[in-house]
Amino acid sequence: MEWSGAVLAGGQSRRFGQDKARYCYRGRPLLQWVLEGLEQASERFVVANQAYPVAVPIYPDLRPGGDTLSGLHTALARARCEWVAVAACDQPFLQQDYWCYILKRILPEAQAVIAASEGFLEPLGGLYHKSLEAEVAWRLEAGQLGLQALLRSVPHVTVPKDELEARFGPQLFLNANRPQDLP
Questions:
Q1: Is pTM beyond 0.85 here?
Q2: Closest to 91 (Cα-Cα) out of 177, 164, 180, 176
């Protein structure tokens, strides 16, 4: 199956104190780790409003101002494949085996495949179908920027976060708000 891989790197990294995508973690920028995890995708690209020294296309937000939802919209609009794996630039533990595992969870009626834990849906590190582009664009126009609300309103498959972390490690969905949050 062909699929696209998109890394969202458009945040301002205010709490982090520096650009997360460029932060050197274990000898390489965080962005490079995430791109490597998406290496089996038919295409890979970065959604960011600035240039990065990477060998993949970089697309700015098509509809800026909507935070992560703007990045998701751009990823869906720019992707060539029907399914798009969407990761944040600070998710270095989403490696190739992870993506292969959740790609197998796609069901015909689903528009998203995401991790879930105790009612919380993990929007990043998930798969999104291109058919969501119009819904995401509408929510951006309406100022409805919440990813949880979007995901709850569309057919989706959830994979228990505990199952994923047991298989791929407890830092899988790490949200690094500060450099010291990285192990």
A1: yes
A2: 176
